[in-house]
Design goal:
2 copies of one chain form a homodimer. Helices cover about 30% and strands about 30% of the residues of chain A. Chain A has 11 helices and 22 strands. In chain A, the strands form 5 sheets. In chain A, strands 10, 11, 12, 13, 14, 15, 16, 19 and 21 form a 9-stranded antiparallel β-sheet that branches. In chain A, strands 3-2-1-4-5 form a 5-stranded parallel β-sheet, with helices on both faces. A 4-stranded antiparallel β-sheet of chain A has the order 6-9-7-8. The longest helix of chain A has 18 residues. The radius of gyration of chain A is 21 Å and the shape is globular. The termini of chain A are far apart. In chain A, about 45% of the residues are buried. Chains A and B meet through helix 1, helix 10 and strand 19 of A and helix 1, helix 10 and strand 19 of B. Chains A, B: Catalyzes the ATP-dependent conversion of 5-aminoimidazole ribonucleotide (AIR) and HCO(3)(-) to N5-carboxyaminoimidazole ribonucleotide (N5-CAIR). Chains A, B: Pfam families: ATP-grasp, PurK_C, RS_preATP-grasp-like. Chains A, B: This is N5-carboxyaminoimidazole ribonucleotide synthase.
């Protein structure tokens, strides 16, 4: 199929910042793109050939949108899967496959899948609701402490709670859930895997999330992770296996833990470009976004190696500020070496809203880390 | 001034591929952009906030367009300068300045400027027309051989002719012209200089144009140039002086020759992003396009160093093909290491039309050069 300056059409469900950055790389290939998003002010709106406003969870909306596209992909998982299934049946290429999206959607089923496929993951038990979980505790089939997770719908820390005693169960929502063993870990890692329909497969280097020493919040995504080479190789091997097990086409971001005894356990996956891969725009030979496009169009995958060390800092709205956004000290950080701000194009800031990110690249990781800290301490997202 | 996610508006005169790539970098800063171009199908059309179709040489069109913008820049020099002058008088920021555009427009005046500012350049004589030049020959005030240049309007090899005898004068157009000394040179080089209104100034590394051994055509733009370090330093110093002499704001691409005895002589300049800087998207810490934006918005300049070696190959329409473009073997070259195609988005190819370019990056220059040759020999722009 001829994708370049042709009548080929790629459809993207979701028009947020991931879509915006994905579209950026469609421009250099001159691929026609259609975007569906509920918001009139979606960051993706400007860089696509045609923008459609509509509900991503409505069968007809997604189905009619998909009918116009040769290949359909997503930048957000929460979309109408029945419509995607029907489109796939009718011969449209849908990547990631609706089957995988359905499997991933329920965290209990996702964990079962890892167990069935011999993918290392922490022990888990599934419960239809909190009463079911309570019963298991009563019968000593479940012990404190554990990690409670809502089976569906949680993200960015929502729907997850560490439960150390019965007190922590108080006020948990009445939804299907799971309990996972609380694994003491040294590091939170992620590996992005790119795989095309031919089965060509490549992993990006392992990245490390560095947390704020007090607040339990990721401060920096660091590539490559400052970990032992053998652990890194193990993490990449595990991630490869996860992508193969799903028979995945496109990007798969595999989040995992490095345990105290240097084992790798898979936490969860995202079947699309991922926050942990934003560093790749500046640091990698081929950005995660370009490789997602290459993968879903069954083109050869680009080199996933890094040219230089990369660190990513998220720009989130500061507490106490809501309204027309101002990026305080952005000019100051732009004077630092190897610093590129990415402003997503949301006019209104509010507390903790993801407004952009900043990438810091440098030949020398220690230097990059130093500059990243200056960036973090300088810039403020206020109104 | 706050440029990021604000009401600030940047206007760009011209909507070709340079504008398209420039706009790409405005997206990550979320800067509002307006584009004026005569073609309904301008490559820039998709990535700007507002597209206006109009004649770039019409006073009213350019003036009315400029009135809507806080800062105005160009991606093509051939625009109505009177309108830009009036806009500048009225307080709009116009970069490059209309004064510089006027000075550069006439190659005779441009050469005079170099002489006045002690910038090394080949000897030249100006003539009002070809008869005036003929008189100089008759009076022995001019000798063969020399390079004839049309004073205005020529580009990409048009309006330039090597004149070795009276026979070569036959059929030259009746226009203002100049005769330049024919300087034997080893290499054709270029240096891009970025300078902001504060006067911060940085040069990119020297690039080298490698010509086809038989056809007199640039095949590869190579960064860094494979030349002696001292010559490279001299070239960068000369380019810095040229930018300062113009008091230039924005990018200035300085084209020059390395003579047989390792002198640097300036040939001509382009006051904007330039074909010789396309490699920078993949190879540099900061692309030429991002630095043009930083410069004209008086932001701190980004690092102009390279992460890796970069080679650029232009994709031009093959002779004998006109119509809906096909990029033959594009999938093949995408399988090579470090290869990124940039397709400009022109649907119709015709002989020698600039349709795109391909960048090859690699840690090792020799390896990049080998892959560049494979790219050049594989890809064909046909219909």
């Amino acid at each position: 199929m001829n994708y370049f300056s042709s009548d080929f059409k790629l459809g993207i469900l979701g028009g947020g910042q991931l879509g915006k950055m994905l579209l950026n790389d469609t421009r250099k290939f001159d691929i026609q793109t259609l975007v569906l998003d509920p918001s009139e002010e979606a960051p993706s709106r400007m860089s696509c050939n045609a923008f459609y406003r509509g509900n991503l969870n409505d069968f007809d909306t997604v189905y009619q949108f998909g009918k116009m596209c040769h290949v359909i992909t997503i930048e957000i998982e929460n979309v109408n899967l029945e419509a995607l299934e029907k489109l796939e049946e009718e011969g449209h290429l849908v990547y990631p496959s609706p089957k995988t999206l359905r499997l991933i959607k329920n965290k209990g089923r996702q964990k079962d899948f890892y167990v069935e496929n011999n993918i290392p993951t922490s022990k888990h038990q599934r419960f239809v609701d909190i009463k079911d979980l309570q019963n298991a505790l009563d019968k000593d089939e479940l012990d404190f402490p554990f990690v409670w997770k809502s089976a569906e719908g949680g993200y960015d820390g929502n729907g997850v709670k560490i439960v150390r005693s019965a007190l922590d169960l108080y006020n948990l929502p009445e939804v299907e859930c799971l309990a996972e063993a609380l694994v003491p870990f040294k590091n939170e890692l992620a590996v992005i895997v790119a795989r095309n329909a031919k089965g060509d497969i490549k992993t990006y280097p392992v990245v490390e999330m560095e947390f704020h020493p007090e607040a339990n919040q990721v401060e920096y995504v660091i590539c490559p992770a400052r970990i032992d080479k053998k652990v890194a190789e193990k993490a990449r091997a595990v991630a490869l296996n996860v992508s193969k097990a799903f028979n995945h086409v496109g990007l798969l971001a595999v989040e995992m833990f490095q345990t105290e005894d240097d084992e790798i356990v898979v936490n969860e996956v995202a079947p699309r470009p991922h926050n942990s891969g934003h560093y790749s725009i500046e640091a990698s030979y081929t950005s995660q976004f370009e490789n997602h496009i290459r993968a879903i169009l069954n083109l050869p995958l680009g080199n996933t190696d890094s040219k230089v060390a990369g660190i990513m800092v998220n720009l989130v709205g500061e507490e106490g500020y809501t309204g027309q956004v101002v990026y305080e000290n952005i000019e100051k950080i732009m004077a630092f070496d190897g610093v590129t701000p990415h402003i997503y194009g949301k006019r209104e800031t509010r507390p903790f809203r993801k407004m952009g990110h900043v990438t810091i690249v440098n030949e020398d990781m220690a230097e990059a880390r130093k500059i990243a800290e200056e960036v973090k301490n300088s810039i403020r997202v206020i109104s």
